[in-house]
Amino acid sequence: MSAQLLPIAEPAEVRRAAWRLIQSDRVAFVVVLLMNCAAAAAGLLGPWLIGLIVSRVQAGAGVAAIDRLGLLVLVAAAAQFVIGRQARYLGYRFGERTAGRLRVQLTDRLMRLPARTVERAGTGDLTARATADAGLVSIVLRDAAPEMMFALVQALIVIVAVVLLSPLLGLVGLVALSAIPLVLRWYLRRARSAYLVQGATNAAVADVLASTAAGARTVEALGLHDRRTTACSTSIAAATAAQLRTLRLRSVFFPTIDISTALAVGAVFGVGGLLYLDHQVSLGTVVAAVLYLRQLSTPIDTILIWVETLQSAIASFARLEGLASQARPTRPRPPATPVDQHILVTDVYYAYDDIDVLEGVSLDVEVGEHLAVVGPSGAGKTTLGRLIAGVDRPRAGSVTVGGVSVADLPPEQLRQHVVLVTQEHHVFADPLRDNLTLAAPHATDDDLFAALRVVRADWVSDLPQGLDTDLSIHRLGGAQAQQVALARVVLANPHTLVLDEATALLDPNAARHTERALAATAEGRTVIAVAHRLHTAHDADRIAVMEHGKVTEIGSHDELAAAETSYAALWRAWTGRPPKPQPPAETGKSD
Ligand SMILES: Nc1ncnc2c1ncn2[C@@H]1O[C@H](COP(=O)(O)OP(=O)(O)OP(=O)(O)O)[C@@H](O)[C@H]1O
Ligand SMILES: [Mg+2]
Question: Based on C-alpha coordinates, what's the Rg of the chain?
Fold first, then answer.
């Protein structure tokens, strides 16, 4: 089954989210903005003073006056340096804080993703968002955003200054610079897809090489050398073509930008010279305007260096924001408290990809009852188990415990009612104690040992550091990991257990061991067990047979075996005997 990509936020939503980020630290943002303006304004003083010096020298001013102006130029440069440094420093701090908030928000959203969404998305997309996307956005917030803000403010203020100094020269400069936005647009439109193709073709080369190396024996055995060589050559050719394309784009883009800035300076110089000869502007004004335009090249370079990264970061930010629509609300409406332990499944429908796999399933499970669910593969047993355990929500119908929908219960409350036990359990790379207390945060060591005794985890006494043993160093076997998972269930102490093939992956010896642990865990609880061994079903109080998304038969072993039922046929196939008289299962009783 192919993974479905998680949604990506729309541009409007991205803008709103960015605005919210700024809003939540708005004082700092405004301060940074003002500091940037001050630094840029200080930068304007230098060229203006030099222009003034030129005019004074021309007017025959004395050396002392010129020296004073020269000193002011130095003071202005120092002021620009100090204020600019402070502006950048505050900008970096703002970026760092914002990146931190974004990370916290991301973790929170990931934790609130419904299990079904995570499964459907697959780990690739989620991991990419949580690592590559979050990383890129953080880098941009920390480095690019402060630099770009500084550069943008500087460029804007310089342009405004030239226009104020001499509207005509300002116009000449702007016309000469107008090629930059055009060529930038041209470049960005092509660059994104070109770099994506470059990335994909590079990945393809790595894939082909890795799979050829991994399958070396097969290649040798079947004489596939030529085929693999052709495959490698083809993917390398595609990668080269993609790299040439991006190179061509860069070789048009960067020179055009450089020429535009040089042209602007040259044009203002030329036109300014003519205007000066015509006595329309002073020499000082021309010198100041030219110096201002020279100053533009640094911020323009900064903006161009980062603009691509910024574009990718905006795409990444949209992917991070896409998670928001999938996460459960932080505060769902307060759930009602179940009045008793009664599990009721009423006319439930569930669909994967718009195809119903449960069609009108109803079950009334008595408190303390052991109900086995049997049926052919694909009948919907696992799906039903997940709905009863509140992992998923039915498309129609309801699954309730004590009158409250299980899917509405918050996790910490849900696990006190129903817990799903499958073969997919996870042992965290933490001490054993932490692995257990995650099910019961307030449990004492005595509680933990008691739970471990219930699941017969005798091996605990042999652990080097007891409950403090780090399970990332001391690795547990499959059966031991399952016992840890069961001890968590004992600690959570739910009144109802849903078991789905909890021992299917274990070897027979370990399975027998685990089944005993399971039986001990199940004692005194309501159990709904998907039974893949019919003798387990035989021991249950009732058996529900599922076929094609429906419960087709339900009753005790004796009732079902007595009639011409699917169950009776299954039983015959399983034991090789007619259902009556009742045989004990030859593999031995399990609970
Ligand atoms: N994640 C999924 N995406 C799409 N279809 C699914 C998914 N999981 C299960 N199905 C389909 O839903 C139907 C019911 O599957 P389910 O796993 O509930 O059956 P099951 O009775 O547990 O089978 P088995 O005995 O093999 O475990 C099957 O047709 C299966 O192909
Ligand atoms: Mg199943």
Answer: 36
Q: Which ligand is nearest to the CA of 118?
A: 1
* Nearest CA among 495, 526, 327, 481 for reference residue 415: 495
Computed from CA positions of residues 534, 536, 538, 543, in that sequence, does the dihedral angle turn out positive or negative? negative
The yes-or-no verdict on residue 590 having pLDDT over 50 is no
Question: In terms of DSSP bridges, do strands 542-547 and 343-352 run parallel, antiparallel, or are they unpaired?
Answer: unpaired
Atom of ligand 1 nearest to the CA of 383: 18
pLDDT band at 580 (very low <50, low <70, confident <90, very high): low
Å from CA of 383 to ligand 1 middle: 7
Ligand 1 pocket, CB under 6 A: 1, 352-353, 357, 375, 377-383
Which strands make up the sheet holding 396-401, listed edge to edge?
355-365, 343-352, 396-401, 404-405
**Which of 179-193, 204-218, 383-397 has the largest mean confidence?**
383-397
Backbone φ and ψ for 548, nearest 5 degrees, come out as 50, 45
Return the structure tokens found at 441. Answer: 């945060």
Ligand of minimum distance to the alpha carbon of 379 = 1
Question: What mean pLDDT is predicted for residues 505-516?
Answer: 74
Assigned token pair, 278: 């015509």
Residue 130 in this model has a pLDDT that exceeds 70: yes
- Residue of 44, 45, 554, 585 lying closest to 299 (CA atoms): 44
Judged against a pLDDT cut of 80, whether residue 119 lies above it is answered with no
| Å from CA of 544 to ligand 2 middle | 14
> Rounded CA gap, 52 and 61, in Å?
11
Tell me the pLDDT of the chain averaged across its residues. Answer: 86
Structure tokens at 338: 């179940």
For 249-267, what is the HEC assignment? HHHHHHHHHHHHHHHHHHH
SS3 590: coil
| Cross-strand pairs, 405 | 400
Which numbered ligand comes closest to the C-alpha of 500? 2
Calpha distance 558→305 (Å, rounded): 78
Using one digit for the tens of pLDDT, what is the confidence trace for 41-99?
Answer: 888 888 889 888 988 888 888 888 899 999 999 999 999 899 989 988 998 899 889 98
* CA angle, 114 then 116 then 122, to 5°: 105
Give the per-residue SS3 of 370-428.
EEEEECCCCCCHHHHHHHHCCCCCCCEEEEEECCEEHHHCCHHHHCCCEEEECCCCCCC
Lowest mean pLDDT across 331-340, 408-417, 461-470: 331-340
Distance separating alpha carbons of residues 409 and 469, to the nearest angstrom: 33
Residue of the CA atom closest to atom 18 of ligand 1: 380
Q: Please tell me the distance between residue 378's alpha carbon and the centre of ligand 1 in angstroms.
A: 5
Tell me if the bond preceding 47 is cis, omega within 30° of 0. Answer: no
The full DSSP string for 501-568 is STTTTS-HHHHHHHHHHHHHHHTTSEEEEE-SSHHHHHTSSEEEEEETTEEEEEE-HHHHHHSS-HHH
Give the count of alpha carbons within 13 A of 234, CB side only: 9
